[in-house]
């Protein structure tokens, strides 16, 4: 009888421990679920903000065109969406993409970042109605402009104190160099932009100028004025 009572007490203790462990497991699972949901919502919100900014900035740089960031879904099953089935997010205005934007907002699916494999860029430079091109189909200058628009879109959502751009306008057409220089000039009120360039458009909106000279196997940096900078750039272009 004494042994039975001992086993009974041990069984009760073990059952209590089991209940405590199950409660702890449930609490941990709830916490994991909560953190996963917060992570997915944060990533989704950040993407929507950057995508909206990219759409707006691209239209400012290319008034005749349109650009969007696209979430790419991963392959599920043979009957479910594949990586080619995409979701456009970004434009909240009443533009040509209103149907897509409204469809995305009205559905409001449960966000799960694990269902996506990446982000792609789809743009049109000549029309807001033509079929948009992928980044792989663009020229070097067009790719550069898309990269600049994406950087500035991220800057608008998560600003940094300064940016260092190395000849970002080298492959751009004149009209786009003017547009990029103008936008950087406006954004320079809230952040510092340090740019190297051999083009005159960026110099026309800059505030300070520094020339890098190479002589006797040594590079030297000295402050110069706008006229000296323009003269140097024009001399390089004549070569």
UniProtKB/TrEMBL annotation:
InterPro entries: P-loop_NTPase, RecF/RecN/SMC_N. Residues 1-25, 73-107 are annotated as: Disordered. Residues 8-25 have a biased composition (Basic and acidic residues). Residues 98-218 form the RecF/RecN/SMC N-terminal domain. Transmembrane segments: none annotated. Residues 83-96 have a biased composition (Acidic residues). This is RecF/RecN/SMC N-terminal domain-containing protein. It comes from Cerrena zonata.
């Amino acid at each position: 009888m004494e042994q039975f009572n001992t086993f009974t007490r041990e069984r009760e203790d073990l059952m209590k421990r089991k209940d405590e462990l199950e409660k702890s497991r449930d609490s941990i699972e709830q916490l994991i679920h909560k953190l996963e949901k917060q992570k997915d919502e944060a990533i989704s919100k950040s993407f929507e903000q950057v995508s909206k900014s990219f759409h707006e900035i691209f239209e400012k740089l290319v008034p005749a065109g349109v650009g969007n960031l696209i979430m790419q879904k991963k392959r599920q099953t043979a009957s479910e969406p594949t990586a080619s089935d995409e979701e456009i997010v970004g434009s909240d205005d009443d533009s040509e993409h209103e149907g897509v934007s409204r469809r995305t907002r009205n559905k409001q699916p449960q966000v799960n970042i694990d269902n996506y494999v990446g982000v792609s860029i789809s743009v049109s430079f000549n029309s807001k109605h033509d079929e948009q091109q992928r980044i792989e189909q663009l020229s070097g200058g067009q790719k550069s402009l898309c990269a600049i628009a994406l950087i500035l879109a991220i800057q608008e959502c998560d600003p940094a104190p300064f940016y260092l751009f190395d000849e970002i306008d080298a492959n751009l057409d004149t009209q786009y160099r003017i547009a990029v220089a103008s936008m950087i000039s406006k954004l320079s009120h809230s952040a510092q932009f340090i740019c190297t360039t051999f083009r005159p458009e960026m110099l026309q909106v800059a505030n300070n100028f520094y020339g890098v000279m190479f002589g006797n196997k040594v590079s030297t940096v000295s402050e110069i004025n706008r006229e000296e900078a323009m003269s140097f750039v024009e001399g390089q272009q004549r070569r």
